[in-house]
Amino acid sequence: MEVPMDSKPRWERRKDARPQELLAAALDLFVERGFASTRLEDVAKRAGVSKGTLYLYFENKQELFKAVVRDNIVDSIGEAENSMAASAASSGELLHSLMMQWWEEFGATKLGGLTKLMMAETNNFPELAQFYNEEVVQRGNALIASLVERGIQRGEFRPVDPVLVSTILCAPMNMLMMWTHSFLPCDVNDIDPIAYLNTFIDMSLRGLQVTPPVSA
User: Does this model's pTM top 0.85?
Assistant: First the structure.
């Protein structure tokens, strides 16, 4: 009788499962310890492989970190871009959906801890900071800016600066992720993330949407 794949020891699993196990282990450790304090041997140990096996897939810690970001965040940004381009929904509906999806898939998970990591270690690892800024921050901001521009072109949003608005819309989300991974565990006045986001999105849409003229 064949043993189910998931019940086999990690070292007996097929090789194509190892990169994902390494990426999952790396994400855990990067969030727990930060980039500088994460050692490749600890990533390999948590993934249940040898350090030599890790080097078969990733040249160094920097490349491992980039793979974590690309596999978990960059690919999802591409999916969101394609989804928005094909959607017939209103721009307000799309903005609400995008912001809530951002929280559910990233902010409310361990991935949200990468925001804190980058804020804390940017000066020590400028090359990684540039990578994260180009592939995550700039591309994410561009996605939101294009959504705002879509709303303007469709007459759903007021004429505003889409780039500036995208930066404003991202800031509270980033702050919420920072709170979740830094301050909230020590704060007795916990913030309800969903209530926070619904309130923020509602306020944002009220500011963006075209206001009907007031009758005399």
Answer: no
Task: State the residue for tokens 């810690």.
Answer: 61
With 60 as the cut, is the pLDDT of residue 146 above it? Answer: yes
CATH number at residue 11: 1.10.10.60
Number of domains, the chain: 2
In whole angstroms, what is the distance from residue 77 CA to residue 113 CA?
17
The residue segments making up the domain with residue 23 are 1-58
Q: How many other β-carbons are positioned within 10 Å of the β-carbon of residue 103? A: 20
CA–CA dist 47, 133 (Å, integer): 28
- 76 shares its domain with 156: yes
Nearest partner of 134 among 64, 55, 73, judged by Cα: 73
* Crossing angle for the helix pair 113-121 and 18-33, to the nearest 10 degrees: 60
